[in-house]
Design goal:
It is a single chain. The chain has 550 residues and is of the alpha/beta class. The protein has three domains: 213 residues, Rossmann fold, CATH 3.40.50; 76 residues, Luciferase, domain 3; 109 residues, GMP Synthetase, Chain A, domain 3 (2-Layer Sandwich), CATH 3.30.300. It contains 16 helices and 26 strands. The longest helix is centred in the N-terminal third of the chain and has 18 residues. Bound molecules: adenosine monophosphate. The site of adenosine monophosphate has 21 residues, from strand 14, strand 19 and strand 20.
């Protein structure tokens, strides 16, 4: 029997139309570094998105599912692009402006981007690469910047404001199949070529509903979210589309991502929610510890993208800011799990739940797979690789203009689940605890040591700012942990002392690292995560001054 329900497609067009009318008064506030930030209502943003769609179609000739790329910070221009490009049936391709030049060029060519909308402030980085991006026919420059950098290197250059000015304020949006491509994002790719994840209208729509669900971020039009997580990193964790769906006000930091301006925008604009990777919160914590600020408006913060050290969560609890841990990937749109504890628990009872990566929403199924391919029980002890599936989880990677989409065996199971490469355990009530990336686990004498657990334990020491632990070769054990430690300003602490601290905090004796080194900063990836392959390379190249303590 067929249902009697209407078959209305779930599209970004709907999100745009809804947001600009029903939530027309909600605002996007963009930090500019000027005394006053830039403010625009959803009604204004929606109208400008419609004008942008006209400009792209009528002036630049964008048609069908051609790719329009963005090389931009988080700001209102970028939100307009997020709405206009998918709604007109084209594909929004967000480019990560922190990627090495070679990768950026590779990605633009692979995606066959026709247009790049670029913030003026990013031109010094972008302009020199353009001659190596033959598919790009038009460059649209948004916001202040030295446009002369494009002289002689760009085919056709347009000023964003001039391009959209005076164009119609309604658009006869195409009928879109909800399964068709709306946006794409390449994974930062630690090995091999970057891989393109292509989101559909349907996946974005469903994911946006999940972001707003009370069991996830629980955002409404009473909220202002500070979206620190870049719009080029998994669509800013889905926040702009989710915000337009529910009228959530957005505070966009543009390029002002340093602790001082972040603290200032939080104090001045009083966001109720924020989202960013742990590195950002570590930096802000150091700043507000040195110069106290009122962060209490920001009652809830979504933290993910890398494991959140429990000590960081504790420090923010003391500041009246509750960090809620979430796990996801570019391939999972990214919302996979969120650590909202079950109802009815005391603060003390909630704690063990809060430090997990969280539980799956109904739209995401998870399972653990052991080394022999067997499915493991949810007993909080059996560790295996996490596999997931659901309507906003990737089932393939983009194969390029002439190629078929790719389903490499190491990334997708035979029955279509995504192999995450993350290793962990799941409790009987469905809370996921990740112990490591499969490739970061330390295999010592046949036993596994979690680099993340060691890092969390070291970072709980009051003199430690950051710590990253990697596996290094060991004649006797195969691999042993190397602890690389960043000390807080002015702190002096011996490695013996740190080792004793770890032992006292419950780290098993055989897991205690013998190899220690102090570094100035933990190297970070393009999206602000610990870049352990750089540490491993530095060690292999003999660049680290390692002390052995036993
Ligand atoms: P990306 O696709 O660049 O966002 O990277 C996804 C990867 O980040 C995941 O596969 C995890 O290894 C890691 N990750 C994301 N969130 C968390 C988290 N809450 N705890 C630990 N690792 C995380």
């Amino acid at each position: 029997m067929l249902s009697t329900m209407q078959d209305v497609p779930l599209t970004v067009t709907r999100i745009l139309t809804h947001g600009m009318t029903i939530h027309g008064k909600s605002q996007v506030t963009t930090w500019t570094g000027e005394p006053e930030p830039h403010r625009a209502s959803f009604a204004e943003i929606g109208t400008r998105a419609i004008r942008l769609a006209h400009a792209l179609r009528d002036e630049l000739g964008i048609d069908g599912d051609q790719r329009v790329a963005t090389l931009m910070w988080n700001n209102s221009f970028h939100v307009e692009a997020y709405l206009a490009i998918p709604a007109m049936g084209a594909v929004l391709h967000t480019l990560n402006l922190r990627l090495p030049a070679e990768q950026l060029v590779w990605i633009v060519n692979h995606a066959d981007d026709k247009v790049v909308i670029v913030n003026g402030s990013v031109l010094p980085l972008f302009a020199p690469l353009l001659p190596r991006m033959p598919s790009v026919e038009h460059v649209v420059v948004a916001g202040p910047g030295d446009r002369s950098l494009l002289d002689g290197v760009a085919p056709r250059v347009h000023d964003y404001e001039e391009l959209i000015a005076g164009r119609p304020t309604t658009f006869d949006w195409p009928e879109i199949d909800e399964r068709s491509a709306a946006a794409m994002c390449y994974t930062s790719g630690t090995t091999g070529d970057p891989k393109g994840v292509v989101y559909s209208h349907r996946s974005i729509y469903l994911h946006s509903m999940q972001v707003n669900a009370t069991e996830s971020m629980g955002l409404t039009d009473a909220d202002t979210t500070l979206a620190v997580v870049p719009q080029f990193h998994v669509l800013s964790w889905g926040l702009p589309h989710a915000a337009f769906m529910s009228g959530v006000n957005m505070l966009m930091p543009d390029r002002f991502l340093q602790p001082v301006p972040l603290a200032e925008m939080i104090e001045r604009e009083r966001p109720t929610h924020a989202a960013a990777v742990p590195t950002i919160w570590q930096g802000l914590l150091a700043e507000v510890t040195a110069r106290p600020r009122d962060l209490t408006s920001m009652a809830r913060v979504t933290i993910g993208g890398a494991a959140c050290p429990p000590s960081l969560m504790e420090a923010y609890d003391k500041l009246g800011v509750r960090l809620c841990h979430a796990w996801g990937m570019t391939e999972t749109s990214p919302l996979g799990t969120m650590a909202n504890p079950p109802a009815g628990l005391s603060a003390e009872e909630e704690w063990p739940y809060r430090v997990t990566q969280g539980r799956f929403p109904a739209g995401v199924e998870g399972r653990l797979v052991g080394p022999g391919g067997e499915h493991l029980p949810w007993d909080n002890e059996s560790a295996g690789e996490l596999e997931v599936r659901g309507p906003w989880i990737a089932g393939a990677y983009y194969g390029g203009v002439d190629g078929e989409n790719l389903r490499p065996e190491d990334k997708f199971s035979q029955d279509g689940w995504l192999k995450t490469g993350d290793v962990g355990v799941i409790s009987p009530d469905g809370f996921l605890t990740l112990t490591d990336r499969a490739k970061d686990v330390i295999k010592s004498g046949g036993e596994w040591i979690s680099s993340v657990e060691l890092e969390n334990a070291i970072m709980a020491h009051p003199d430690v700012a950051e710590a990253a632990v990697v596996a290094v070769p060991d004649d006797k054990w195969g691999e042993r942990p190397l602890a690389t430690v960043v000390l807080k300003e002015g702190a002096v602490v011996g490695f013996e002392n740190l080792r004793t601290f770890l032992a006292e905090s419950g780290v098993a004796k055989w897991q205690l690292p013998e190899r220690w080194t102090v570094i100035e900063a933990v190297p970070k990836t393009s999206v602000g995560k610990f870049d352990k392959k750089v540490i491993r390379k530095r060690h292999a190249d003999g660049e680290l001054d390692v002390t052995v303590v036993v």
